[in-house]
């Protein structure tokens, strides 16, 4: 289709098990003609869990998992199905992730502390804290308001919220 000179390509798909029963359905789409849409988006729903992933080449860049989990559960999910909770390296990463997230949605990313670091153990060279953050003793995990400004807040790690995974191949099932 076409909207104001922007062409949209969409493809539906269904993954089947060996017994030919439906495993997962979804929709791939991209917007052609806008350099900032250089990725495909995949929307799927399996076992009641809505996912959206950005794909660059053959690899998932970021995946939004719309399921409420605490930070540790989200990290475990990401490590089992992708690589880890999202590591946000720069503003370009924030802008890419924002294409996945509903307005106003806050999500877990992989930033946490004893000393602030990424879930994979790497130190940070980029941060995007909201003014007056981090501010809470005992708030050792990072939520990003990536559905809006993209800025980060420190939260109690037991809060249940959707989350962003990064890198790795998309899982066939959940």
TrEMBL record:
Gene source species: Poecilia mexicana
PROSITE patterns for the chain: C_TYPE_LECTIN_1, C_TYPE_LECTIN_2
Source species taxonomy: Eukaryota, Metazoa, Chordata, Craniata, Vertebrata
Key word Disulfide bond present: yes
Alphabetical list of SUPFAM superfamilies matching this protein: C-type lectin-like
One Pfam family, short name: Lectin_C
Coiled-coil region(s): none
Keywords, sorted A to Z: Disulfide bond
Name recorded for this polypeptide: C-type lectin domain-containing protein
The C-type lectin domain, residue ranges: 62-166
Keyword flag Disulfide bond: yes
